[in-house]
Amino acid sequence: MKIFKRVFVAALAVAAVSVFSSCAKKNSRIAPDGTITLVVWESTNGPDEFIREAGRIYEETHPKIKIKFVNVELGDAVNQIALDGPAGVGPDIFAAAHDNLGNLAIGGHVLYTQNPEQVKEKALASCTRALTYDGIMYGYPVSAETYSIFYNKKLISESELPKTWEELAAWTEKFNAENPGKNGFVMNIGAYYTIVFTTADGNRLFGPNGTDTANSNINSPASVRGMTFFQSLRKSLNIPAADLDTATVDAAFQSGNAAMHITGLWNVVNFEKAGIDFGTAPLPSLPGDTKPAASFSGTRAMFVSAYSDFPDEANEFANFLMSDEMQLLRFKITGALPGTKVHVDSPYLSGMMEQLEYAFPMPSIPEMSKYWNSMDNASKNIWDGADVKKELDACNNAILGK
Asked: Does the structure show a pLDDT above 50 at 55?
């Protein structure tokens, strides 16, 4: 009986400490005058500047709200919210890519969008689709993205731009032979980009709606044909997979040593600062096709944490980030395509917007989390000469847990 009493008392003590700790964490974000501090997780190199400036503007009309930026990179937020949220030290709002939505929703880490109909009316249709999981919308889109061909106008004219991947390969081989030390074309060969080569004949990862958990389609006949062609591009870009990472290929274009590069609007500011005179164009068509190859489209959203003590205030600020003023500010600072229908002026939008018509949202089902490493490895191995079918079969098995 004494043992039971001691255990019971100890349990009460632990519970009391837990409650006190939770209250202390909550109260630490409320100043004596009632001012609430909302913590926002975002990445550096542009998004951080946007959140700070948006917060300053918001505070002018909401004197009882303070916005605090905390650096948590986009790729780290999903894992970190699962740890910091329940511990009471997480954010009120955090940025994440939409393909993580399945895990975030199933894990109970994010709240529903408070005003989904208003968001649907204001946002790009591709963004609202991307942020809908199992019929429910989560988060507020702040930018949309895909990738296309960026071309250096000093090295290739608009009239020379290849319309097909076969033409790109031939032009690149000729350019490389005539321009030692330069490349006609470079690209990152990770899974985000190589998905392009699997999309012939309407083939799509996890089916047409991105929700087929029984078939990834990454090893379908169309995928095998497309990735076999991808492997043939090694003749035009004779660089090992290990040397085709994002930093290296971005630097090649930024230094004026590559005529064409596959990237997105997030690189516009960097390329402009480097003094590159460039344009954008849709991707070439795959063998046997006549329209631009399909690319992944992504939505960057601000999600309200399910662990926030101030969900109404957090939703209001996240919604504010979708206003025309804030979307134009974000575009000016980051160069990223707005997630809403607001009009922006940019010489680089035409090619990107055309490509967006052929893009498809990255699937957001939980199985998507297994796609990235599996397809990254398969793509690199295929590029370096491995058997295409075997690599894609192994990728499919890893994704589906076979």
From this structure: yes
